[in-house]
Amino acid sequence: MRPFKITALLVAAVLATSASAVGEDPGFPAVLNVRQRAETIARITKKRLDTVLPMAMRRAGFDMWIIVSREDNYDPVFNTMIPDNAWCPITQILVFHDPGPGKQIERMNISRTKMDELHASTWDYRAWDNEKRESQWDCLARIVKERDPRKIGINESDVIWAADGLTASLKTKLLSVIGPEYAARCSSAEPMASLWLQTLLPEDVELYERAVAISHAIIAETMSRKVITPGVTTTDDLVYHYAQRASDLGLPRAPWNWFAVKGRTAEMIERYGKNDKVIRPGDLIQCDVGLVYLRYWTDHCEWGYVLKPGETDAPEGFKKLMAEGNRLQDIFRGEFQTGRTGNEMLAAILKKAKEQGIGKPKIYSHSIGYYAHEPGPLVGLPWEQANTGKRGDVRLVPNSTLTAELSVAGPVPELGGQELNMALEQIMLFTEEGTRFLDGRQTRFHLVK
After folding, report:
1. Per-residue pLDDT tens over the stretch 241-290
2. N or C: which end of the chain has fewer CB within 10 A?
């Protein structure tokens, strides 16, 4: 479907051989085994902590960041900073301290968790267990006092959900432990957390593109005769095939995954019923699916067409509408500028689309990466095409990814002039040099022959 190239970044453990990769179908992107995934996540997380973390702290103006969470309810940012195979029991505390220009950020782990090379173990929990010498919270209080930070970030936010991981009870405990002087220096770490989660290194991008290629390949397989027998297979079958394929590869799937039949004439709807899920010749198939690989989320809306006897391609009316959607994607990607808000982008995209005669354009795009819809700007919602509030006021930063999720609509001659809404979604990378789609985008229907 799309070319997939493994570049120099993907070093020895990432260059999966046929002996160690999972899902070895010819033409299917190689998938790392569990050990390789853990090693790869450890390497990329360490590099991010060495480079992205100092940038985020200094740009946001914090010299300390305290992340506190508990087992079974981990902070979203915490989850992106730990080894893949870490067991994190009871209370977890990470402290980051910036000693000043030219010096490395201190990364301190105050817990029983083994963090390997990512964070230095700062608390002697065995001395506490055996002699009750210094508790976990006393250790935190000592570290804060010794470093005397000017501005402390804590994860609370009413805008960015992923930056709101500090629970009410843990906040009360934290502020009590560090005392009123340092509690007064605490403020929302939202700007810092957002930069940490949004900013991707070139190595991130190459690994992320691998995740996207895997999802693209499963979609293409699902919308093929390998899976679909016209007149027999249902859209539920496709949902479970995508889910099973991801599961067989050891990949979590997105919770929203669905497939649906679209593009039926009024006559077909009357014959088979509006709730018919059986896939038949002449049907369009739409999906909205995603998975998680190496901690990167994917989210795609693509289309297939079931050929009728004698057909070799989708009808021209359908192809014209997809081309219109691709035009809207091009307008969308042309309006990306560092510092622009989601609401500003939305207005500019819709203005240009209407000027260029795009049929019923609608934009509902979101940030994606280490989380499915966070933490960058929200660019429209299906029910809101003017102002999405505070989430829409978030500003775009370079080296980040968003979905180009949008739709166009128009009458289709092959449907007797009936209007069809065509929604498309692909993942797009934004850098100071411009934008591009990760692993390409759909410009032609998947054909079920």
Report:
1. 999 999 999 999 999 999 999 999 999 999 999 999 999 999 999 999 99
2. C
User: What is d(CA 52, CA 292) in angstroms, rounded to the nearest whole number?
Assistant: 22
DSSP labels, 303-333: EEEEPPTT-SS--HHHHHHHHHHHHHHHHHH
> How many Cβ atoms are within 10 Å of 192's Cβ, its own excluded?
24
- For 427-446, write each residue's pLDDT tens digit: 999 999 999 999 999 999 99
Lookup result for tokens 């990378």 = 429
- The whole-angstrom separation of Cα 357 and Cα 346 is 17
Domain ranges of the chain: 38-196, 201-448
Please state the pTM of the whole predicted model.
Answer: 0.93
Convert 389-440 into a string of H (helix), E (strand) and C (coil): HHHHHCECCCCEEEEEEEEEEEEEHHHCCEEEEEEEEEEEEEECCEEEECCC
Give me 222's structure tokens. Answer: 């699902």
Highest CATH level, class, for 38-196: alpha beta
Tokens 């500019």 found at: 348
3-state secondary structure of 18: coil
Task: Name the residue type at position 173.
Answer: K
- Residue 16: which of 31, 27, 28 has the closest Cα? 31
Token pair belonging to 137: 């919270």
Distance CA 281, CA 305 (A): 8
Domain with residues 201-448, CATH architecture: Alpha-Beta Complex (3.90)
Nearest to 205 by CA among 368, 56, 17, 86: 368
d(CA 180, CA 420): 61
The H-assigned helical ranges of 148-167 are none
